Amino acid sequence: MPKVSEDHLAARRSQILDGARRCFAEYGYDGATVRRLEEVTGLSRGAIFHHFKDKDGLFLALAHEDATRMADVVAHEGLVQVMRDMLAQPEQFDWLGTRLEIARRLRNDPDFRRSWSQRSAELTEATMARLARQKSAGRLRDDVPTDVLIGYLDLVLDGLVARIASGHAGDNLSAVLDLVEESVRRRD
Question: pTM, whole model, 2 decimals?
């Protein structure tokens, strides 16, 4: 039996993740059945679950991939830039509808909550590091604890995600993000 190259395995995994992202975005977690995952990826259930333990594992892999991508932007440009990117390039964030599913599952599924916490730590750490650098540089308010700023920005992000996912991304959201950004800057 011939060995499959690492490049082939990586390409197949990427194919599965791309298809699953579209499927979860269109049908939600419950509606993204194995049959639909097979159709959208063009692969059999055996091929899909060769790379992922189960549907939860696939869903969490997507969440981790997205959190890693967002953490990279946060580290260099801040969490507000991630939100601006969501407004400017919504097609790059077609998974937003799945964030609502994540919120539901975080509330109702302790195993999922535990797994999600492990996977989303990278984004939280990037946000904390960015805020600490901004505070040290004198660009960020120093009268508000960092954990409160993180909670505030997370709340705004969740609200923006819900707004976009529900199809109500108004024209003034960029101005709202300007206000958010101004509200965390140091006042001289």
Answer: 0.76
